[in-house]
Amino acid sequence: MLQILFDALSLGSLYALGALGIALIFGVMRLVNFAHGDVIAFCVFALLWPSTDAMAIVFAGQLPWYLLVPFVLLCGAGLSVLCEIVVFRRFRKANPATMMITSFALGFVIRYFLLMLYSSRPKSISLLPTLSQPVEIFGARLPLLQLITIIATMAILIGLTLFLRQTRFGLEMRAAAENFSMARMLGVRANRVIMGAFALSGALAGAIALIFGSQTGTADIQMGASIMLMAFIATVIGGLGSLGGAVLAGFLLGAASVVMQVMLPVDARPFRDAFVYGAVILVLLFRPQGLIAARGTKERV
Amino acid sequence: MAYKMRIAMTALAVLSVAYPALADDDKIVVGFATAESGFMEAYDKPAQEAAMIRIQEINAAGGLLGKQIEVVKADTKSDRAEGAKAGLSVLDGGADLVVVSCDYDFGSPAALAAEDAGQVSFFLCAESIKAGIQGVGPHSFSASVLAPVQGATMAEWAFKEKGAKDFYRLLDTWTVYNKGICDGFDWMMPKLEAQGAKLVGEDTFKNEDASIAAQITRIKSLPKEPDAIMLCTMMPGAVSAIKQLRAAGINSMILNGSGVDGSYWLSAVPDLSNFFVPVQGSIYGDDPSVDVNKFNATYKEKTGADPSSQYVYPGYVMIDVWAKAVERAGTTKADAVVAELEKMKDEPTLFGTRTFTPELHHQNKARYLIVETKAGKPGVVGNWTISEPVPMEALLK
Amino acid sequence: MSLLALSDITIRYSRLTAVRDVSFSMAEGEILFITGPNGAGKSSLLRAIAGVTPVAGGRIDLAGQEITSQAPENIARLGFSMVPEGREVFGSLTIEENLLIGTGMHANNRGWRTRAASELEAVYATFPMLKERRNGQAGLLSGGQQQMLVIGRALMTNPKLIAIDEPSLGLAPNITDQVYERLIVLRAQRGLTLLIVEQSSARAMMVGGRMILMRGGQIVLDGDARTLGNGEAIQAAYFGYEDH
Amino acid sequence: MSAVVSETPLAGVVKAAKKPARFSLARRTIITPILLSLLLIAITLITVMTGSRPFNQTVIDVLVRVIFVVGLYIFIGNSGVLSFGHVGFACLGAYATAWLTINPIMKSSALPGLPEWLLQTRLPYWEAAVLAALFAGVAALIFGRVLMRLSGIAASIATFAVLAMINTIYSNWDSVTGGTSSVVGIPIIRTIWPYLIGAVVAIFIAWAHAISRSGLALRAARDEPIAASASGVDIPKERLVAFVVSGAVMGLGGALMAHSIGVVTPDTFYLSLTFTTLSMLVVGGMGSLSGGVIGVVLLSALIQALRWLEAGVPIGESTFAMPKGLQEIALGIIMIVILALRPSGLMGNREVTLPRRNRG
């Protein structure tokens, strides 16, 4: 039972972090950033030296953890901000569909760039190998990594909450997420807030890359995609623009996935995702504005 | 509008020049409709390199039927629709043999194009029964061994040689290949159960699942850790699954298909032990056959790297058996070559024997070397040939 | 020198022209009402000054600088503060947080809280109700309270000119009275320039000051609110001639 | 007279859709589908003249994509709601045609879970394609009944959930769909004409829907949602009509795609096809039928040109070849540039028509 709880929490953590990364950008820009998954993949590959050999040449991955973690977070933030400056800045006034397709095209560019440098073969990396040891807690034997994932996610969530609540930048960001043009009329600098949101979102992508990378031990071009999809769904059913909702929905999706895997009979288990998506449709039908509708969010016409 | 149309047409007209249609009977042409870019490239390229090595050997020894073998290539871009185009384009290039992608799904559009044109097609290393008569037609073959043979081999070997009694089956539903391994395992299990083995549980996951924690919890809730886990999966999800199994403290034997062969990923699971893979030949320099080790050296010399996994070898086998059949038929005419291929019974090759029949253009029984990874070091620990061939019913499941 | 000057402003939404060739200017300390029926282009005009609606033609100057097509945050920095139609409080933020947003632009990160504190005290002195509920969610306030909040929020940017779009919208008349009372006091205290948009001219006549009447995207009358308000001309100008 | 927002043109449009007015509307707009069809016919004729088999296959592919993108346009363009789920209907169509056309002997061994009557059926491909389209349309009706209440991004996600459900079910229902493995034995049609006919039919269906009362009402609702519902437009109902029609067109496209390569798997009809087709629509111009068709033609031509560069172009003595993989990168960048320059797509909301006429 305890084990199931931990399983649900650790999977939910990944989805929640992903959903946050998407919700942050959506909040300030109304952009559903499909390139987010590719930023995650990029962060993992940044640890390797570009080569198309089957054997991965570990490069930054060899750094001690206290350098490795900031390195990956910076990679994510850097790439994300770069995307904003080079591409998304030009699309501030575009309609959501155009922005979505643009972000998809950008993700496509990043993915094929990685493919060219590293080839399509998934590469193995041993990231923070000490974390793969099992530990015993309350009678349940858990991978240490699972525990660290949960703790790290909680720490990130608390840190982010403090940042958003206690700093001026956080305040500006929350205001901008709720009503961007009003915030600007009060002197909030659009570029700064949007770049901040991209940087945070990119750093979150880096965090996911670290967790996911050490959990799977693999760097794969496609690796961001599945998390990105779930995160995207979590963002919507959580209530677009609501950060709290995104986190909640992320954990719920993780829990739904794990619980269904446990409860369903073996023949129905391959259909697990169909049930999860069915539940998503149900949630949307009953709460089209999401679980936690961002209060006061104005539909921009 | 008219202007745009003109541009489009000019572009199209120019493009059509890029596909010259030539057919020349003085030459023997092998056409590769394989992935040179995209997802499948990593799988097709090594086998294709091996095929090229065999072609060069043949050419160096005077060619086939006294003619040099020429090669034409078209990129499938790891895309099915592009695959069909690539197949047609090597056929237009005069291919007598159409070599298609490693995977049935990606290779079949090109193979079907070859079948339409009445030409022989060979899958580089597809391990599904469909890669042949059943899924393409009477002129199609695969150079590798069926996936169910791998599952069956591992089950029987673990039971007979390692004394494993309690088996657990963990299937990744992502691909037919994965399902094939487990199908072979499922066919073998009742025979072993009659002798005292037991299937203590089963579960599924998806290759791209971020975490298989729930599946692991199910294994851990068993009264006793199973002796062996039959893990029917492939890259990249395999690494993640193996890592998570070991991280959770499950130390059972892990039995696999050939898809996880290779040492390139072992760094992800430091000190991995009790881990077993069936292979057609060893890339680790300890193959019992001297010729295999010699081939590995040649491969390194030509490509600058050691073979990354056993999937290099079927490419070599493919050209080898096809060339023999052409030699025996005295022609590259498809029907004659197919007839010769179907006469092959336990035909020796560098990497085990090959048998083709008018019912099956694939191997339903093969000798496999078993590679054990112990403390992160893989090495051959034995070989096994299943007691009877996997029957058609189990293959077509 | 005028504080705000518009010349030949035209605003278009795709094929629709909302404001056509509008020019006027405001002196420092002036109070100006813009009135007119729905769709006259009043709000568009305010939003154009604030920089959130692009102008198709013309020029806007604020405090001697051209601000046409400037970013809203830069216009705010020059001393223009906007209280938009429908108030637009940040509903999920607390009242104090709503107020604090506007102080960000004048302080560096470190000095921010201390600097903001003195501004806050001044606003709380004007609107004691806000202080009482400072940690409450802004979205839960009543309409009148929200109106106080957004005026307070506009004050926090330390503006020279406050533009208010329909402060009476959705408020009971006695609440509207209170709002205006505070505005008049504030104007006296701080030497503020006020630009107020109202649909009806009644309030303008009551408060006094200058009034511009717009209709169909153009200025039709401009003069002293009290003298204009009593004439027959305003009736005709407001409703226009009957079509067809 | 100054232009003041007073009344939306909507009421007028809906009223105008009465019989005689509609006839003149049809006459006024029919030139668009005709021109688009002529474009496709011209491309096809050139293809046939070159006689190159791979090129023939390339153009078949383009025509199939035209069907998909036109199918997407019928829903997305008219309703303004982005759908990520339509490729799911293409999947249904492709499998339906597989069930109907595969040789019964092969079928009973590969797909034993099919009902007896279906196992015995074997239809010519064009009958199967029509039935596949109907099947996809019915499925769209069932899903649409539930989903069309939603709008905006919630609707987009819900349609995606439909795609994911279809994909999961078709990937695992081994006895009926063959699971993730390819379904084989679908007759391959390598002549180009059926695909041309399919694409032209799709274009005319889209046109007919667009000028129908339902299509007009839906577009009015897209532009002025509040005014539309005030004047009695039942938005969910009109959306449902578009959803069903577009689902059927997607089904037709899926069926033809199956016949063009001869094998189907569920993941042929998943994310990558979704994004390719959506990109073509958005780059061409989401709000216009011409935009969709031209988006496909131009992007396909661009892809081919880049591939040709990748394969190597002789320049004088030497051969210039782009590094492998650069093609996709270039494609992505060009798409971004096009969208940056023309955020509402190449065509915007305009349709191709003859000069001197009103564009609009």
Provide a short characterization of the protein structure.
Chain A is mainly alpha-helical and 301 residues long.
Features:
heterotetramer; B: 397 residues; alpha/beta; Rossmann fold; seven-stranded mixed beta sheet; 13 helices; 14 strands; 41% helix; disordered N terminus; D: 360 residues; mainly alpha; two-stranded antiparallel sheet; 17 helices; globular
What can you see in these coordinates?
The complex is a heterotetramer of chains A (301), B (397), C (244) and D (360). Chain A has a domain at 2-127 and 142-224. Chain A is built from 11 helices and 4 strands, in the order H-H-H-H-E-E-E-H-H-H-H-E-H-H-H. Chain A has helices spanning 2-29, 36-45, 65-86, 96-118, 144-166, 168-178, 180-185, 190-216, 223-238, 243-263, 272-286, and strands at residues 123-124, 134-137, 140-143, 218-219. Chain A starts with a helix and ends in a 15-residue tail after the last helix. Residues 295-301 of chain A have low confidence and may be disordered. With 397 residues, chain B is α/β, with parallel strands linked by helices. Chain B has 13 helices and 14 strands. Chain B has a 7-stranded mixed β-sheet, sandwiched between helices. Chain C has helices at residues 42-50, 72-77, 95-101, 112-126, 128-132, 143-155, 173-190, 202-207, 225-230, 233-239; strands at residues 4-13, 16-26, 31-35, 57-62, 65-66, 80-83, 161-165, 193-198, 210-215, 218-224. The longest helix of chain C is centred in the last third of the chain and has 18 residues, at 173-190. Chain C has 244 residues and is an alpha/beta fold. Chain C is globular, with a radius of gyration of 18 Å. Helices cover 38% and strands 25% of the residues of chain C. In chain C, the strands form 2 sheets. Chain C has a 6-stranded mixed β-sheet with strand order 6-7-8-3-9-10, with helices on both faces. In chain C, strands 2-1-4-5 form a 4-stranded antiparallel β-sheet, with helices on one face. Chain D is mainly alpha-helical. Chain D has one domain (17-271). In chain D, 71% of the residues lie in helices and 2% in strands. Chain D has helices at 10-16, 19-29, 31-50, 53-79, 86-101, 104-110, 116-120, 125-147, 152-172, 174-177, 193-211, 213-223, 225-230, 235-261, 271-284, 289-311, 326-341; strands at residues 313-315, 318-320. Chain D has a two-stranded antiparallel sheet. In chain D, strand 1 (313-315) and strand 2 form a beta hairpin. At the A-B interface, helix 1, strand 1, strand 3, helix 5 and helix 8 of A face helix 2, strand 7, helix 8 and helix 9 of B. Chain A: The chain crosses the membrane at residues 12-32, 39-59, 65-87, 99-118, 138-164, 193-213, 225-253, 274-294. Chain A: Its main location: membrane. Chain A: It is a multi-pass membrane protein. Chain A: It is found in: Cell membrane. Chain A: It comes from Mesorhizobium zhangyense.
